[in-house]
Design goal:
Blueprint lengths: L1 H7 L2 H20 L1 H39 L6 H40 L1 H21 L7 H8 L1 H11 L1 H30 L1 H15 L2 H42 L5 H11 L6 H16 L1 H27 L7 H62 L1
């Protein structure tokens, strides 16, 4: 082992490694499309396993709650853990069933009402455009709204024609969605299998890490992993709870104000509220679009309510849920969201903030101490050189 370490310390080894890395990076960039395709294929093949690991990770706190609080009187550890996993599955099934029973009929009714009233909405929009065009002509403003009017008046038939012309692509998309749902369902099954075998998997991982790394390295990594775990659980748990609070508040307001499409708008507002920064604006815009077709006054009332709600959410609810920042400067939050969206779309936007917080943790725990150590060593060498010069 010592001979191997001495061999790696030779100067030419570092240069050779750098040259190999440069060649590999060049080949990756040169054939980026093929590499990306191969990566996507591998990711698609492994998606059930990846989904299973994510599901096991997210539901592990629930299983630990049942194991340590509800079932703590059970003496056998394996039986206690198994029953905790079973109770977690039962809770998940109950929540899904309750959501489906509560939301699906209301959402179906809202969508049916929207479709049945579509012609009335298009007539109202055409009337508004005609008034706008008349106003423009009266004041000598050159605006051509005829194409927009023509599109609105024939929107339903045009949408049907689009569906007919792109039937094959739509069927392929439906097939891809079905495949994605089946892979997700298999991933959920894998996830609970991983959760049930948690102890065995962690013991095997500990053996592998013990064979590869020293105890000091393992302890340091465990500290970093624990910090990252707290960031993820705290961020996603608080984000989902915040979305639930905003969605329920929106639903109550819409019912009290007797506005149409209440369940549909509330679900849209809750789901878009998960997306940081831009999500609430998207949800508000969709809700206003649905309501302005029915009544501009109701749309204005909803706009006022959503502004007040988002103000309370940003200044009161989220600070209390998150109990401070995640360690990311406010200036960098927007940058991370934009970069995440460019790299991985909606998933990148959702993961941008926790990933940024984890990078901050890694920098504080690993890179910064090394930089300080290096700086101290350089300063010590400079001080020794200066003292040697003074002695001469």
């Amino acid at each position: 082992m010592d001979k191997v370490k001495q061999w790696f310390k030779r100067p030419w080894v570092g240069y050779a490694a750098a040259a190999c890395i440069a060649v590999v990076l060049y080949e990756i960039l040169e054939h980026f499309a093929q590499v990306k395709g191969a990566f996507n294929n591998a990711l698609t093949f492994l998606s059930p396993v990846v989904t299973g690991l994510v599901v096991a990770y997210l539901f592990d706190p629930v299983a630990r709650f049942f194991e340590n609080k509800v079932l703590k009187k059970l003496k056998k550890e394996n039986a206690r853990h198994l029953w905790a996993v079973i109770l977690t599955i039962i809770c998940l099934v109950l929540v899904v069933v309750l959501l489906l029973v509560a939301l699906i009929p209301s959402l179906a009714k809202s969508v049916s009402t929207l479709v049945s009233n579509w012609n009335n909405y298009t007539d109202k929009l055409s009337s508004l455009l005609e008034k706008a065009a008349e106003f423009a002509r009266t004041h000598n403003i050159n605006i051509d709204l005829s194409s927009i009017q023509n599109f609105i008046e024939n929107s339903m038939s045009k949408m049907l024609n689009v569906v007919k012309d792109n039937a094959k692509g739509i069927l392929n998309t439906i097939g891809d969605i079905g495949s994605g749902i089946s892979n997700f369902a298999i991933g959920v099954l894998f996830g609970f299998c991983f959760l049930a075998a948690k102890k065995t998997l962690l013991e095997g991982l500990a053996i592998v890490r013990g064979a590869l790394f020293k105890k000091e390295r393992i302890d340091r990594d465990n500290t970093i992993f624990a910090s990252c775990h707290r960031v993820f659980i705290r961020y996603f748990g608080c984000t989902l709870l915040d979305a639930l609070i905003v969605g329920v508040a929106t639903l109550i307001f819409l019912f009290v104000a007797q506005m149409p499409y209440a369940p549909l708008i509330a679900v849209v507002v809750a789901l878009t509220n998960i997306i940081p920064t831009f999500g609430p604006m998207i949800g508000a815009a969709i809700g206003i679009f649905f309501l302005v077709l029915e009544s501009p006054f109701k749309a204005l009332l909803f706009f006022i309510f959503i502004c007040i709600l988002q103000g309370l959410d940003g200044m009161v609810i989220k600070p209390r849920l998150f109990s401070g920042s995640l360690g990311i400067p406010a200036v960098w939050t927007m940058v991370l969201i934009i970069l995440g969206g460019k790299i991985a779309g909606v998933l990148g936007i959702l993961l941008a903030i926790p990933v940024g917080a984890i990078l901050v943790i890694i920098y504080n725990e690993t890179i910064e101490p090394r930089l300080k150590k290096r700086t101290a060593k350089v300063n010590q060498g400079s001080s020794a050189a200066e003292s040697g010069g003074n002695d001469s």
